[in-house]
Protein backbone atom coordinates (compact mmCIF):
# COMPACT_ATOMS: atom_id res chain seq x y z
CA UNK A 1 0.00 0.00 0.00
CA UNK A 2 1.72 3.15 -1.14
CA UNK A 3 1.37 6.31 0.96
CA UNK A 4 -1.63 5.24 3.07
CA UNK A 5 -3.64 7.42 5.44
CA UNK A 6 -2.55 6.58 9.01
CA UNK A 7 -5.06 6.26 11.85
CA UNK A 8 -4.93 4.99 15.44
CA UNK A 9 -7.33 3.29 17.83
CA UNK A 10 -6.80 2.84 21.57
CA UNK A 11 -7.65 -0.44 23.33
CA UNK A 12 -7.85 -0.16 27.11
CA UNK A 13 -7.43 -3.10 29.46
CA UNK A 14 -10.65 -5.10 29.71
CA UNK A 15 -12.12 -3.79 26.45
CA UNK A 16 -13.08 -6.01 23.54
CA UNK A 17 -10.16 -4.94 21.35
CA UNK A 18 -7.72 -5.50 24.18
CA UNK A 19 -8.70 -9.16 24.32
CA UNK A 20 -9.19 -9.65 20.56
CA UNK A 21 -6.27 -8.88 18.29
CA UNK A 22 -7.46 -6.70 15.40
CA UNK A 23 -4.25 -7.56 13.51
CA UNK A 24 -5.86 -10.98 13.04
CA UNK A 25 -9.56 -10.11 12.79
CA UNK A 26 -9.65 -6.52 11.58
CA UNK A 27 -12.14 -4.03 13.05
CA UNK A 28 -15.89 -4.43 12.60
CA UNK A 29 -18.65 -2.19 13.93
CA UNK A 30 -20.95 -3.78 16.51
CA UNK A 31 -24.09 -2.97 14.49
CA UNK A 32 -22.99 -2.75 10.85
CA UNK A 33 -26.58 -2.67 9.59
CA UNK A 34 -27.78 0.05 11.96
CA UNK A 35 -29.13 3.30 10.59
CA UNK A 36 -26.40 5.67 9.47
CA UNK A 37 -27.82 9.08 10.14
CA UNK A 38 -26.92 12.27 11.94
CA UNK A 39 -28.61 11.22 15.20
CA UNK A 40 -26.65 7.95 15.34
CA UNK A 41 -23.42 9.77 14.49
CA UNK A 42 -23.99 12.35 17.25
CA UNK A 43 -24.73 9.65 19.82
CA UNK A 44 -21.60 7.73 18.81
CA UNK A 45 -19.35 10.78 19.19
CA UNK A 46 -20.96 12.41 22.26
CA UNK A 47 -21.72 9.33 24.34
CA UNK A 48 -19.19 6.86 22.94
CA UNK A 49 -22.07 4.63 21.87
CA UNK A 50 -20.53 1.33 20.83
CA UNK A 51 -23.71 -0.17 19.43
CA UNK A 52 -23.55 1.72 16.16
CA UNK A 53 -22.46 1.23 12.54
CA UNK A 54 -19.32 3.33 13.16
CA UNK A 55 -15.74 2.59 14.19
CA UNK A 56 -13.95 5.53 15.82
CA UNK A 57 -10.46 6.25 14.60
CA UNK A 58 -8.15 9.14 15.37
CA UNK A 59 -5.37 10.88 13.48
CA UNK A 60 -3.57 11.43 16.82
CA UNK A 61 -1.40 8.78 18.47
CA UNK A 62 -1.63 10.80 21.73
CA UNK A 63 -5.43 10.69 21.74
CA UNK A 64 -5.39 6.94 21.06
CA UNK A 65 -2.91 6.44 23.92
CA UNK A 66 -5.17 8.44 26.25
CA UNK A 67 -8.13 6.23 25.32
CA UNK A 68 -5.97 3.12 25.80
CA UNK A 69 -5.26 4.26 29.37
CA UNK A 70 -9.02 4.55 30.09
CA UNK A 71 -9.74 0.82 30.24
CA UNK A 72 -11.15 -1.12 33.17
CA UNK A 73 -7.70 -1.11 34.81
CA UNK A 74 -4.68 1.17 34.72
CA UNK A 75 -1.89 -0.18 32.48
CA UNK A 76 1.23 -1.28 34.33
CA UNK A 77 4.46 -3.22 33.76
CA UNK A 78 2.69 -6.59 33.63
CA UNK A 79 -0.53 -5.56 31.84
CA UNK A 80 -0.23 -3.12 28.94
CA UNK A 81 -2.94 -1.32 27.03
CA UNK A 82 -2.63 -1.04 23.24
CA UNK A 83 -2.77 1.46 20.41
CA UNK A 84 -3.49 -0.06 17.03
CA UNK A 85 -1.93 1.51 13.94
CA UNK A 86 -4.19 1.39 10.90
CA UNK A 87 -3.16 2.16 7.31
CA UNK A 88 -6.02 2.80 4.91
CA UNK A 89 -5.44 3.35 1.20
CA UNK A 90 -6.15 6.89 0.06
CA UNK A 91 -7.95 5.53 -2.98
CA UNK A 92 -10.94 3.19 -2.94
CA UNK A 93 -10.22 -0.44 -2.34
CA UNK A 94 -10.38 -1.28 1.35
CA UNK A 95 -14.20 -1.37 1.42
CA UNK A 96 -14.18 1.19 4.24
CA UNK A 97 -15.95 4.51 3.91
CA UNK A 98 -14.67 7.36 6.11
CA UNK A 99 -16.78 10.16 7.57
CA UNK A 100 -15.57 13.36 9.18
CA UNK A 101 -18.09 14.18 11.95
CA UNK A 102 -17.41 17.91 11.51
CA UNK A 103 -18.32 17.84 7.82
CA UNK A 104 -21.43 15.78 8.54
CA UNK A 105 -22.69 18.23 11.18
CA UNK A 106 -21.67 21.45 9.45
CA UNK A 107 -23.28 20.39 6.17
CA UNK A 108 -26.67 20.99 7.82
CA UNK A 109 -25.71 24.49 9.04
CA UNK A 110 -25.41 26.50 5.85
CA UNK A 111 -27.73 29.30 6.99
CA UNK A 112 -26.30 31.22 9.98
CA UNK A 113 -29.80 32.49 10.85
CA UNK A 114 -30.98 28.91 11.37
CA UNK A 115 -27.83 27.44 12.94
CA UNK A 116 -28.25 26.08 16.43
CA UNK A 117 -24.73 24.94 17.19
CA UNK A 118 -23.60 28.28 18.61
CA UNK A 119 -23.47 28.61 22.40
CA UNK A 120 -24.30 31.65 24.51
CA UNK A 121 -21.70 31.12 27.21
CA UNK A 122 -18.37 32.75 27.95
CA UNK A 123 -15.19 31.98 25.98
CA UNK A 124 -13.98 29.21 28.28
CA UNK A 125 -17.33 27.41 28.08
CA UNK A 126 -15.83 25.16 25.38
CA UNK A 127 -13.41 23.81 28.00
CA UNK A 128 -16.46 22.31 29.71
CA UNK A 129 -17.11 20.26 26.57
CA UNK A 130 -13.48 19.36 25.98
CA UNK A 131 -12.83 18.18 29.55
CA UNK A 132 -16.03 18.19 31.65
CA UNK A 133 -14.33 16.58 34.67
CA UNK A 134 -11.94 19.53 35.01
CA UNK A 135 -14.23 22.33 33.86
CA UNK A 136 -17.82 21.63 34.97
CA UNK A 137 -20.60 23.66 33.40
CA UNK A 138 -22.09 26.18 35.78
CA UNK A 139 -24.63 29.00 35.48
CA UNK A 140 -21.89 31.62 35.86
CA UNK A 141 -20.81 30.68 32.33
CA UNK A 142 -23.97 32.36 31.02
CA UNK A 143 -23.86 36.14 31.12
CA UNK A 144 -26.51 38.56 29.93
CA UNK A 145 -26.13 42.25 29.19
CA UNK A 146 -27.07 44.78 31.88
CA UNK A 147 -29.30 45.90 33.40
CA UNK A 148 -31.28 42.63 33.68
CA UNK A 149 -28.47 40.23 34.54
CA UNK A 150 -30.86 37.41 33.72
CA UNK A 151 -31.84 34.18 35.35
CA UNK A 152 -29.09 31.80 36.35
CA UNK A 153 -28.91 28.95 33.86
CA UNK A 154 -26.26 26.95 32.10
CA UNK A 155 -25.24 28.11 28.62
CA UNK A 156 -26.96 26.64 25.58
CA UNK A 157 -25.25 23.36 24.69
CA UNK A 158 -26.57 21.48 21.67
CA UNK A 159 -25.71 17.99 20.47
CA UNK A 160 -24.28 19.52 17.29
CA UNK A 161 -21.82 21.67 19.28
CA UNK A 162 -20.83 18.74 21.52
CA UNK A 163 -20.25 16.51 18.50
CA UNK A 164 -18.06 19.05 16.74
CA UNK A 165 -15.98 19.95 19.80
CA UNK A 166 -15.42 16.31 20.80
CA UNK A 167 -14.56 15.32 17.23
CA UNK A 168 -11.99 18.14 17.13
CA UNK A 169 -10.67 17.22 20.59
CA UNK A 170 -10.19 13.59 19.59
CA UNK A 171 -9.12 14.25 15.98
CA UNK A 172 -11.87 11.75 15.21
CA UNK A 173 -12.79 10.12 11.94
CA UNK A 174 -15.54 7.51 11.68
CA UNK A 175 -15.15 4.38 9.59
CA UNK A 176 -18.17 2.67 8.07
CA UNK A 177 -17.62 -0.95 7.10
CA UNK A 178 -15.08 -3.52 8.22
CA UNK A 179 -11.43 -2.52 8.40
CA UNK A 180 -9.56 -5.58 7.10
CA UNK A 181 -6.81 -7.15 9.21
CA UNK A 182 -4.37 -6.35 6.39
CA UNK A 183 -4.86 -2.64 7.20
CA UNK A 184 -4.07 -3.09 10.92
CA UNK A 185 -0.30 -2.92 10.69
CA UNK A 186 0.80 -2.70 14.34
CA UNK A 187 -0.27 -2.87 17.98
CA UNK A 188 1.86 -0.71 20.25
CA UNK A 189 1.98 -1.42 24.00
CA UNK A 190 1.04 1.48 26.28
CA UNK A 191 2.39 1.19 29.85
What labels would you give this structure?
globular; Heat-Labile Enterotoxin, Chain A; three-stranded antiparallel beta sheet; 191 residues; alpha+beta
Describe this structure in words.
- With 191 residues, this protein is α+β, with helices and mostly antiparallel strands.
- It has a domain at 5-104 and 170-190: Heat-Labile Enterotoxin, subunit A (Heat-Labile Enterotoxin, Chain A, Alpha-Beta Complex), CATH 3.90.210.
- Helix content is 26%, strand content 18%.
- It has helices at 16-19, 22-25, 38-47, 61-68, 101-106, 125-130, 159-170, and strands at residues 5-11, 54-58, 81-88, 97-99, 172-176, 184-190.
- The strands form two sheets. The protein has a three-stranded antiparallel beta sheet with strand order 1-3-6. Strands 2-5-4 form a three-stranded antiparallel beta sheet.
- It is globular and about 65 Å long.
List the helices and strands and how they pair.
Elements: E1 5-11, H1 16-19, H2 22-25, H3 38-47, E2 54-58, H4 61-68, E3 81-88, E4 97-99, H5 101-106, H6 125-130, H7 159-170, E5 172-176, E6 184-190
Antiparallel strand pairs: 1-3, 2-5, 3-6, 4-5
Helix pairs in contact: 3-7
Q: Radius of gyration in whole Å, from Cα?
A: 19 Å
* CATH structural architecture of the domain at 5-104 and 170-190: Alpha-Beta Complex
Question: β content, as a range?
Answer: 15-25%
pLDDT below 50 for ≥5 consecutive residues: which ranges?
A: none
The fourth-level CATH homologous superfamily of the domain at 5-104 and 170-190 is: Heat-Labile Enterotoxin, subunit A
Helix percent band: 25-40%
The level-1 CATH class of the domain at 5-104 and 170-190: Alpha Beta
Q: Give, in order, the helices and strands.
A: EHHHEHEEHHHEE
**Count of runs of 4 or more consecutive helical residues:** 7
Mind summarizing the main beta sheet?
Answer: 3 strands, antiparallel
Return the structural class.
Answer: alpha+beta
Tell me how many strands there are: 6
Strand order of the largest sheet: 1-3-6
Distance between the termini: 30 Å
Shape: globular
CATH topology of the domain at 5-104 and 170-190: Heat-Labile Enterotoxin, Chain A
Question: What do the pLDDT scores average to?
Answer: 89
Amino acid sequence: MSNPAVFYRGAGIGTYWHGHDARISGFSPILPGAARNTATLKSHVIHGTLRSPYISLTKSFGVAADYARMGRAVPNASMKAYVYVIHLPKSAGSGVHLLDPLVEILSSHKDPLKSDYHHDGVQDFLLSIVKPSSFPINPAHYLQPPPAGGTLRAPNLTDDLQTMVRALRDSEILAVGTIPASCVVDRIEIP
